Amino acid sequence: MKRNRHQFLLSQYHHNHAVQLVHGGKTYFDKLIAMIDGASNSIHLQTYIYENDETGQQVTQALVAAARRGVAVYVLLDSYGSDGWKQSWPAVLEAAGVHFRWFSSVANNQHFYIGRRLHHKVVVADAQRCLVGGVNISNRYNDLPNDPAWLDWALYCEGPAAAILDVVCLRIWQRDVSRKKRLTAQQFDCDASLHNCMPVRVRRNDWVRGHVQITRSYLEMFREAQSHIIMMSSYFLPGRKMRNAMQQAANRGVRICVITAGKSDVKTSKNAERYLYDWMLRHNMQIYEYMPHILHGKLSTYDGKWVTVGSFNVNNLSTFASVELNMDVLNNHFAQDVEAQLKDIMQHQCTLVDNDSFARQTKWYHRLWYRINYDFIRITFFLFTFYFKQEKRQH
């Protein structure tokens, strides 16, 4: 029975991929620039935040150079997240022949898409190589002198998933995401220096368009895990359905470790997150707060066999109001390598929050303040995720 279940899960993946977990900071931007410089046919870059700082200018120069040598370059930015570019960006790119468009996060049309964000971070080169994660294009996500990057991750992938993502990006670019087309996996020669022959699947969340695959991946993780789960989430506020699934896993003996931010760029979110600590500790979940710098990564793994990496935060904003994209990898060797990195972070860069330390450091007025922040975030998420019409799912 267990073998049949594994075969069923495996059938959902495309095979023959080379993959690499990419740490944020300089490592990420070196990989990104190399992808752009090596492209010969096409580049899709879609992201939430793109700033006109040193890091942004470096990426811009690479995109402009690619366009000038004849590569078809498509750049799609969220109009809210990248608002600072609105005066100068289009002219710079269009003069070089780059195709540029804004993704409107606030629209007033027949669907009333209020507050919808393009939150995913995707780069595809030549429909053969892709980079998917949580890293925005900004100095905050890069390693600069005396200013290390926020902790983040991405998955670099060569193989059929890149061809799938190329089509996904093109459809979003063309505003044509209502029709689904089953894609046939292509065969690729993979870089021998990477983890080879990995099963990978592309997972999307865009609730308005009926895509809830990342949510299903997380629910699948809680359902399938037998031993342990490690989750790293920068803004960890799981909704009711996700909490129920977590609790059920914990009740059957699965050890759940959650790496959260010790220092957060959104104080209200962090306070709201701490309101859930009581619930997590009551159900024997382990909480680790990352202390060296800002945590922005979104990465989860279970039982040393499965990993998901991408832009999806475990909260209702990512579940209902944002366009998100993750990549799932089903492979023991890769998952165990990822787990080893996470365990090293937990041991050397995190503070364990247990019942005694939380009770000692948290007075009644702290708990009240956490509850106020939690209710504020919950109501805000509700307002941002309220739509008069959700488009019917296409099968």
Q: What does this entry look like structurally?
A:
It is globular and about 60 Å long. A hairpin with a 3-residue loop joins β14 (298-302) and β15. It has helices at 2-10, 26-38, 54-68, 89-96, 160-173, 213-224, 240-251, 267-275, 277-282, 316-321, 332-348, 355-361, 364-384; strands spanning 14-23, 42-47, 72-78, 99-103, 117-118, 121-125, 129-133, 153-158, 195-206, 211-212, 228-233, 255-263, 286-294, 298-302, 306-310, 322-330, 350-353. α2 (26-38) packs parallel to α3 and α6 (213-224) packs parallel to α7 (240-251). The chain is built from 13 helices and 17 strands. The longest helix is centred in the last third of the chain and has 21 residues, at 364-384. The chain is an alpha+beta fold and 395 residues long. Mean pLDDT is 86; it is low at 107-113, 176-187 and 386-395. The chain has a 17-stranded mixed β-sheet that branches.
Write the topology of this structure.
Elements: H1 2-10, E1 14-23, H2 26-38, E2 42-47, H3 54-68, E3 72-78, H4 89-96, E4 99-103, E5 117-118, E6 121-125, E7 129-133, E8 153-158, H5 160-173, E9 195-206, E10 211-212, H6 213-224, E11 228-233, H7 240-251, E12 255-263, H8 267-275, H9 277-282, E13 286-294, E14 298-302, E15 306-310, H10 316-321, E16 322-330, H11 332-348, E17 350-353, H12 355-361, H13 364-384
Parallel strand pairs: 2-3, 3-4, 5-16, 11-12, 12-13
Antiparallel strand pairs: 1-8, 1-9, 2-6, 6-7, 7-8, 9-10, 9-16, 11-14, 13-17, 14-15, 15-16
